[in-house]
Amino acid sequence: MPSFEWNKIIASVLTAMIVAMASGILAGQLVRSKPLEKPIFLPAGAEQAAATPAAEAAAGPAPIEPLLAKADPKKGEQLTKVCTQCHTFNKGGTNKIGPNLWGVTEENMAAVPNYQFSAAMEAHKNEKWDAEKLNQWLWRPQSLIKGTKMTFAGLSKAEDRADIIAYLDTLK
After folding, report:
1. Nearest-angstrom CA–CA distance, 149 and 117
2. What stretch of H or E contains 169?
């Protein structure tokens, strides 16, 4: 087959791909999906589960004090393994992307030496960390301090948050 024929075939394929891409972009601009206000169909027993996240988001995290009595610091230590990408937990440890968390339950917010906190966190530097603040922070950091530079999405399970707080409380 002569090269002219190959050129026509390749041009046809490229033209078809460009037309498909352009029509996809145009369709995306013309038709915008709108989220439903409430689910149309819920399987039996799912009504409570579907309503819970919205109610929880509005109310905030569950109180942590009752769970702290039976919290397991060892489990909390295991749960913080993912936190070691950004934080250290040893006495005199270095700051990473996030500050060292040794003794965090005894100090003021934004009080770790040699760490540059966000302006949003600096605004709270005269406040002390307590169990309820740590609970809300671990639930959703942005809900406690809007504009914090911590990008952690949060922990939904109150038991996990209690275990982590119990572990942090041992670091003194």
Report:
1. 8
2. helix 158-170
Closest C-alpha among 140, 89, 132, 133 to residue 112: 89
Task: Name the strand (E) or helix (H) holding 15.
Answer: helix 3-30
Contacts of 122 (CB under 8 A, 6+ apart): 110
**Residue whose pair of structure tokens reads 């003794």 in the numeric block:** 103
The reported pLDDT for the residue numbered 51 is 47
Average pLDDT (9-24) is 96
Tell me which of 35-44, 64-73, 107-116 is least confident: 35-44
- What single-letter DSSP state applies at residue 109? T
Tokens of 24: 């996809």
